Amino acid sequence: MALLAHHPFGVEARLTRTTVLTYAVPAAALQRLIPECLTLDTLDDTWGFVAVALVQTRELRPAGLPAWLGHSFFLIGYRVFVRYTTRAGKRLRGLYILQSQTDKVKMQWLGNLFTSYGYSTIDIRQAAAEGQLHFDSTKANLAIAVELLAADEPALPAGSPFSSWQQARRFAGPLPFTFSYDQARRQVVIVEGVREAWQPQPVRVLAAEVGFIQELGLSGCRLASAFTMTDIPYRWQKGRTEPWPA
Predict the structure, then answer these.
(1) A single Pfam family, by name (predicted)?
(2) Alpha carbon distance 49, 79 (integer Å)
């Protein structure tokens, strides 16, 4: 991993619409996907979680620059919920990025230059009508549809390990930290995120075909929850590193 990929400067953006599908996976099956410096953030030491985040991003730019200089794009991120213990003994909760997909070639290039989040460019189609959101991609073999409910919360997906939507919100994201691992330098890269607003709304999943999740071949994987949220101002601090092992 090049030093530039250590998130070398702060970044800010506005997340105008974020929809997250969270999948529960037996912890033993998910462990192989994360580096040794991280541990899974689990439910009852039994379930780990991987999320598919569909994010309409506006005005992404280096922190401090005016919004009109920002870059707007659509992002699909595949993330595992993890924990990391710092050299000072502090336990941090965050995400480990498995892969990122975007509809803009420029974002793929910049993302792979300044992060290790594995960006690729795909086709993405979005539609919103009659209280539903639809996301489709031929290249990513993805077809997701969710229903927005104005009143009562929907039932949790069948087989979800969560006992309530309140419990499920712990695994909705965005989380305070994002981690990556520079194996060549034996360094953990830590990026702290700062959000100004966050009100996740449960949604009913009408369709969920996600090629990347299917390709992982995770035994016992099941849909656990789904949320959507709007208009989140977000800032990522400059990345910092710690040696591993400490």
Answers:
(1) DUF2071
(2) 8
**For residue 120, what are the contacts with CB-CB under 8 A and spacing of at least 6?**
99, 100, 101, 102, 108
Per the CB < 8 A criterion, the answer to whether 55 and 77 are in contact is yes
β-sheet bridge partners, residue 205: 146
Structure tokens at 58: 């506006």
CB 71 within 8 A of CB 61: yes
pTM for this prediction: 0.94
Q: Is the dihedral of CA 179, 181, 182, 186 positive or negative?
A: positive
Report the C-alpha gap between 166 and 131 in whole angstroms: 23
- Judge whether 151 and 214 are in contact, CB under 8 Å: no
85 CB-near residues (< 8 Å, 6+ apart): 91, 92
What confidence tens digit (pLDDT) does each residue in 56-107 have? 999 999 999 999 999 999 999 999 999 999 999 999 999 999 999 999 999 9
Spell out the domains of the chain, with CATH numbers in brackets: 3-243 (2.40.400.10)
| Interval 100-144: pLDDT, tens | 999 999 999 999 899 989 999 999 999 999 899 999 999 999 999
Q: Which of 62, 79, 54, 43 is nearest to 179 (CA)?
A: 79
Taking the CB of residue 52, how many other CB atoms lie within 10 A of it? 22
User: Residues of the chain with pLDDT > 90: what percent?
Assistant: 82
Spatial distance between the Cα atoms of 126 and 27, rounded to a whole number of angstroms: 33
The whole-angstrom separation of Cα 156 and Cα 137 is 26
- Residue 72 to residue 47: CA distance in whole angstroms: 35
The answer to whether 53 and 79 are in contact (CB under 8 A) is yes
